[in-house]
Amino acid sequence: MSDTSTSAASLPEPLWLRFVYMIGFGILAHIAFSLTLFLGVVQLVVLVVTKQKNDELLHFSRRLFAYVGECLAFVVFARDEKPFPLGRFPGVSS
To answer: Which of 16, 30, 46, 61 has the most CB atoms in a 10 Å sphere around its CB?
Structure first.
């Protein structure tokens, strides 16, 4: 008997499954991008009303922007790790 100890984690996922993930993450990226644009408008309104940026909104918007980048990187095969919700939500350094 030969010892072929390959774990399931080391086997590449089927291409059709990657395609399904690509469609899903493409849709999530589109939703996140639209939400990012909306938050930009909200930030503009906050700036007009209060004369200063909302730091919490700015921080979340930057993280959301990074998430869009991670989704698109997965879709174009620039990264193999799956983005949120199958991976971690991206953090942003100040």
So the answer is: 61
Q: How far apart (Å, rounded) are the C-alpha atoms in residues 89 and 94? A: 16
Instruction: Report H helices in 1-94.
Output: 15-50, 55-75
pTM for the model stands at 0.77
3-state secondary structure (DSSP) of residue 3: coil
The string of pLDDT tens digits covering residues 32-88 is 999 999 999 999 999 999 999 999 999 999 999 999 999 999 999 999 899 888 878
- CA dist 66 and 16 (Å) reads 26
Locate 77 and state its tokens.
């095969």
